[in-house]
Amino acid sequence: MNFGLMNKWALVCGASKGLGLGCAKALVQEGVHVVIVARRAEPLAQAVAELKALNPNVTVLSVAADITTVEGREQVWSVQGGPSKAYDIVVTNAGGPPPGDFRQWGRDEWIKAVDANMLTPIELIKATVDAMAERGFGRIVNITSGAVKAPIDNLGLSNGARSGLTGFVAGLARSGQLAAKNVTINNLLPGAFDTDRIRETLKGAVQKTGLSMEEVMGQRIKTIPANRFGNSDEFGATCAFLCSAQASYITGQNILIDGGAYKGTY
Hints:
about 15% strand; 7 strands
């Protein structure tokens, strides 16, 4: 299927590895020029090489910066050869806050979580969405978490900050100023994927049980009807579809990708 994305420009955050890289890979294969941003230069350079190998006909630019800061966002808007703020697609993605006991978190921990996982996506949306509406095309995909639908007890920082973003998007996406102008905003909710993040969140179980990481991961897999963790390529393919011309009637939705682990009906 031709997704109708040839020569569009996409900003993909947290794209040096994992789910962000999976999204960037799917988009470049659809002929999308991308600017990828992450904090560490070395894995970012490796990602650029991988993306260029997938499609040498697209432009792949990178910015080694902290997208959660004003300075980092300015670096993205001013990257040489990029579209400034005239992106057709924005994929927001920031590393999740650490797990732990809420009794141990103070104001600083909460502000950091909200800044990264709620306010930063809102700032990226604010900077790009009006120009999308003027051009008559725009796709914003926020990578949030399956914890938005089924909160995880030791991920309180993530539960709270990402739920705040979800509520904000629910209202904005349904604005006639955007939906009627072919600008959609959706959230992708990953469950357990084979990334560094799953190992970070399972460290507490390793320490508590004395089991190895492999044993704990095996126990987690048993809770997933698909009997496996997800992979970043299939996640990226879903992201690319939400960015497609064919997905123009999908907005304000929370798309859960978890192998059937969520037990609710709705």
